[in-house]
Amino acid sequence: MITITNLTRTYKGGITALDDIDLTIQPSGMFGLLGENGAGKSTLMRILAGILKPSSGQVDVFGHNLSTAPGRQAVQSMLGYLPQHLGLYPNLTGAEFLDYMAILKGINQTDVRRREVARVLDLVRLSDEADRRLKDYSGGMQRRIGIAQSLLGTPRLIIVDEPTTGLDPEERVRFRNLLSEIARDAAVILSTHIVEDIGYSCTDMAVLHRGRIIFRGAPAELIEEAAGQVWKVTGQAPNNGATVVSTLHQASGVQYRIIGQPEMETATPVQPTLEDGYMCLMRRVG
Amino acid sequence: MNRILNMMRYEIRIHWRRRGLRVMIISYALIMLVAIVQTISAVGLSELIAAGGLSSIEGTTGTEWMLLVTWTLTSGPLAFLMPLVLADAIPYDKQVGMSELLKSLPMSYPQYLLGKSFGATGALCLGVIGVLLIFAVPWWFIAGSYDVSVFLAMTLLAVPALAVINTMLVVLAAAGQPSAFRGLLIGIGLLIVLPVVIRLSHDNLIAFLLPSRGPMLSLYGPSINTGYMLFGHPVEGATAYIANVIIGLIEITAVFGIVVGWRQIKENNT
Fold this sequence. Notes:
The complex is a heterodimer.
Chain A: E1 2-10, E2 16-25, E3 29-35, H1 41-48, E4 56-61, E5 64-65, H2 69-76, E6 79-82, H3 94-104, H4 110-123, H5 139-150, E7 157-161, H6 169-182, E8 187-192, H7 195-201, E9 204-209, E10 212-217, H8 219-224, E11 230-234, E12 243-250, E13 253-259, E14 268-269, H9 274-285
Parallel strand pairs in A: 3-8, 3-9, 6-7, 7-8
Antiparallel strand pairs in A: 1-2, 1-4, 4-5, 9-10, 11-13, 11-14, 12-13
Chain B: H1 2-16, H2 19-43, H3 45-51, H4 54-58, H5 62-80, H6 91-96, H7 99-103, H8 109-143, H9 148-173, H10 180-197, H11 206-209, H12 214-217, E1 228-230, E2 233-235, H13 237-269
Antiparallel strand pairs in B: 1-2
Helix pairs in contact in B: 1-8, 2-5, 2-8, 5-8, 5-9, 8-9, 9-10, 9-13
């Protein structure tokens, strides 16, 4: 179990990135963290990864207190972390980079390491490119190597910050499925601003807004937030304060998907999605 | 320890695959080659072979000639220039975007520092020792037969000692810098500006403390027995050299402690 109690993180200059957060995350399953840029998602991820210290409050990961050095060391030895912005050593090959990361993760036996590297390369479908230098990889391939290193050593806690950025649609689906599979035996925390990623893979989620949790529950519950508020309008977009969430150009004219009350006869109600739920929530909190 | 050794292996690979170190070592090898070519063209190859080496012509020993050329051409660049290409060993991680991932790994900061600085030093030693060994044979014929044990002592003890002290000092001093360029500036400040600003002196502790490493440089050079004083006592030759090695190691330990402590303070205040 991951337990976060009264967690506050204030940066130099008085900017509060996280404000008195309480959160409990199950030891297995996929937990999604959603929020706009600057909501505090990355700060929370970095605290959970033991990179940042909280200003106040407590974080316990599988019984280890992250505020203490031994606790941090214990958590980091069972952690797989993919930062939002990850660069790689450009002059190492994919296999060398993963082997180096395995060494730093404390996998000392050469044969165990070799097997681990082969396993994660296979998971991200880069076995054929393993001996190419990383500087010759495309952006998506580099991201996949980043994902591969987070899976080294079969970690109990996997924290991935915006993991699907730079991946093509097919790889995104593959990666979501891979994480869902891993989440059977491990806690996977996925931070993103791509609502779709959470909708398709997470069983539990939270929405962060200006350092505070404004929603906590299952994705289905967030969808419920938008029940009766999502409409489809063809022709003219309403200008009564309703939010246009998508625009579709058709032969019959432009079709708008809106959140709010359209007050138009042509408007027809539609089934809300997770993105609609999120937009409703954000509209409510301003 | 196992992890640090494994880390060294990859750090050496990373440094060798970057341009800076390769260019530096190739330049150093070229200087050695030029020295050989110049000697041959000045004396003449047939004369050199007939006389059995330069030492016979000049009336000195082959060992003296070998040391004069190899140590003079090696020690200066090794003390002042070569560590500069490795000064960015730690800032490079920040520059390429690796530092956040590295901070999430179950590895202490002192372990990380040791792995990085040993790796940089190992990469440099490998290059310099390799070049010295390659040129050992040509010098045998050009300078005349020399004492192999002296050559090995220079190559495997004196050279690594100088490389370890100045390279580790520069790598550690530049550890907190945010970019490779800033790391290089710290290196230039420490190895070049500092010895120039602080007057070079033979009669006090400063000569032993400065990265110019006078007592180490003069071990095999023509300026041997230049009368170094340490705490009021004259120290010369090998004694001065050993004293300088010990003081250098103390400096490294002190800088290591400061870097780790500074990081601790910074973490607590961020």
